[in-house]
Specification:
414 residues, alpha/beta, 12 helices, 30% helix
Length: 414
């Protein structure tokens, strides 16, 4: 489970694995562009000087561990700059980073992120619905922490954001950047001899939202401050992989037992694990290609918004023609009929399927994409794909790899 820092190979990354040792030493040994997401819960540098007491003089179990202690702000900044720089190196070009902190450190972390070239996508407020009171009554109750979500650079075109999954998680409304989630308590909180095992264990609900929002099934998530393994436990539950770095043996042992107890998600349907088809990232499919591939025939009838009164005939060149002679593309004729400024014809035109039921033409487009993936890999060996890799766009390679995995599950071998 845990692997000493000195035995790391620069040519490989251990997944579903906890490296034991110094965070910076291990990060420096990880390969470039090897992880899809970084989630970091670094030391907060709370600068606690004295024991914290409740009004009844009982001791507050605060964060006073040695790993949260730095000589001064300069030392903390140097450490932060070093680990953030290494994380940027190991992130794939389509990857992103989440980092969480409190008012003690998050502003310093955010400034360093920007200095290193990261581009901030959002800050998210985790509002704790059950925060610890301010016992002395000299400040506001500290009821939130801040997460920063950033991509590697401003120029980065691709990163994962599962917008529709977040919307569904929020009862059909756009997910906001203020999240009300309770602190980690009860059975979820790991303890040893009646005391909290880790002082800043994060709730699984928080990591669930982060991982579902910004990764896909099979992605690798690096947590350089692994602690008791919340990232790993949620990653396993959602069909993702994790790589953790942790120095403390007690935390590693607890994390290992915790993750082992999680039942791995077993689902061939990736939508079960939160995968949402990203049509923007899919290769463009012109409507006339449906005719070229025999999925529609010239003369077929299409119905705008399933309305028999708004029927159009498909012409051989892929355009549509109404009974009054007006013609155009699926999008242009849709605008003409609806009066709307923008119309996605793929979702508005319907045809009568073989079962006699109305079906949206977008289903034909998806069927053609699946057929194209199967054709692309049929009879092609793994070596041939590797030989071609240098000339194939990254998006197409990813689609080919997924298609190969699907075919292998059905019994195909190269």
């Amino acid at each position: 489970m845990a692997k000493p820092a000195q035995s790391i190979s620069e040519s490989s990354l251990q997944i579903d694995h906890i490296y034991q040792g110094d965070c910076l030493e291990i990060l420096r040994g990880l390969p470039d562009a090897s992880v899809d997401l970084v989630f970091a819960d670094p030391p907060y540098n709370l600068q606690l000087q004295n024991m914290l007491l409740r009004p009844n003089n009982s001791r507050v179990d605060a964060v006073d561990d040695h790993w949260d202690q730095f000589a001064d702000f300069a030392a903390y900044d140097a450490f932060t700059r070093a680990w953030l720089g290494e994380c940027r190196r190991v992130l794939k070009d389509s990857g992103a980073l989440w980092v969480i902190g409190s008012y003690h450190n998050i502003f310093r972390v955010g400034a360093i992120l920007q200095d290193l070239g990261y581009w901030i996508l959002n800050d998210v407020i985790w509002e704790k619905v059950n925060p610890m009171p301010n016992f002395k009554g000299v400040r506001f109750t500290n009821a939130h922490e801040t997460l920063i979500w950033a991509k590697k650079s401003q120029a980065q075109k691709r990163y994962t954001f599962n917008y529709h999954a977040m919307k569904a998680l929020n009862d059909g409304k756009q997910m906001r950047s203020d999240w009300e989630i309770p602190l980690c308590t009860g059975k979820e909180r790991l303890t040893a001899n009646g005391e909290k095992l880790h002082p800043t264990q994060k709730p699984e609900a928080l990591l669930y939202r982060v991982i579902l929002a910004s990764t896909n099934p099979g992605d690798v998530i690096l947590d350089p401050f692994f602690g008791t393994g919340t990232t790993g436990a949620v990653a396993k539950r959602l069909g993702r992989h994790y790589t953790g770095i942790e120095r403390e043996t007690a935390y590693i042992e607890a994390a290992g037992a915790r993750i082992a107890a999680v039942e791995a998600a077993a689902a061939d349907d990736l939508a079960v694990l939160g995968a949402v088809p990203n049509k923007r990232a899919a290769k463009r499919t012109p409507f006339p290609s449906l005719l070229e591939n025999g999925l529609l025939l010239p003369g077929a009838a299409l119905y705008f918004d399933r309305d028999p009164e708004r029927m159009a005939i498909v012409l051989a060149d892929g355009s549509l023609r109404l009974a009054d002679g007006a013609s155009g593309s699926i999008h242009g004729l849709g605008r003409h009929l609806s009066g709307e400024a923008a119309v996605n014809g793929w979702l508005r035109w319907w045809y009568v399927g073989e079962d006699g039921k109305m079906q949206v033409i977008d289903g034909l487009r998806e069927r053609m994409r699946v057929q194209a993936d199967e054709t692309m890999v049929s009879g092609v060996s793994g070596k041939t794909l590797l030989d071609l890799a240098g000339s194939i766009p990254a998006d197409d390679l990813e689609r080919m790899e997924k298609a190969i995995e699907d075919l292998k599950r059905e019994g195909w071998r190269d």
